[in-house]
Amino acid sequence: MSRSGEFELIHHFLAPLATTVGAGNLKDDAALIDPPAGRQLVVTTDSMVENVHFLGDGPPSLIARRLLRCNLSDLAAMAAQPEGYLLNLALPEWIDDAWLEGFAAGLAADQEEFGLSLIGGDTVATPGALTLTITAFGSAATPVRRSGAKPGERVFVTGPVGDGCFGLKAVRGAFDVPRLAERYWLPSPRFGRAEGATAATDISDGLVADLGHICRASGVGAVIDLHAVPLSPEVAALGKDARLEALTGGDDYELVLTAPDSMANSTNIPVGRIVPGEGVTVLDAAGHPVPLTRQGYRHD
Question: How far apart are CA 98 and CA 132, in angstroms?
């Protein structure tokens, strides 16, 4: 391979990212994690495969930051704060030292922004696609799960939806909207926004699909007001059909959460209600159900 060997790779690119005591400068077989007193350990993991979950020819620093932020979004949905992460890299032959330098720089930037450290992981060579996996650890005083929604509660989102799916189109060159491309590469984990929620998840598969996950876990249904769902100016400018596509497009990494009316504020935006029954129904301005050709991204 044109890059450094495994131990040189770890020493040069990854060990500088291991800044916590429990990481042991990546010299031990495993890391040590002590959650703060009175808090529970929250763990999530996510893998991304080149040209399936990200564009392989994208800037390595942005690939790294997207990988980390998508995992951190899962912690935010559980009302957790980040503590550290493991990183597994399956690297094809075309990866070189310059790529690794950029990748590590992206991780370093987001470690600084979100206050966490690399604590371990693994690196292997592969004849297949570049495959990246992070296992992120956080802690929460009262973790928020998907199973606590109750009829009568409101459904909130933490910000505009649709930026992620239209951002992917911008990255692929369908149109030139730099802010949407940036939103695709750099989703913003919404730490602190799930506090007090009865149920929450992040919007990775699409608002309708992910709210459906909450409904199934909680044994309830939900109704969404189509025109209450917030869009960014860039998505709204794409035309009236963009609103419906935004509901099912995914990759937003905003949160959808449920809570009593009292949680309504300037940051969490009400878009619907939890009702008895099952599934998610989208209503138009006249209160009529809107037919959906899809619920969101499917993993099969």
Answer: 17
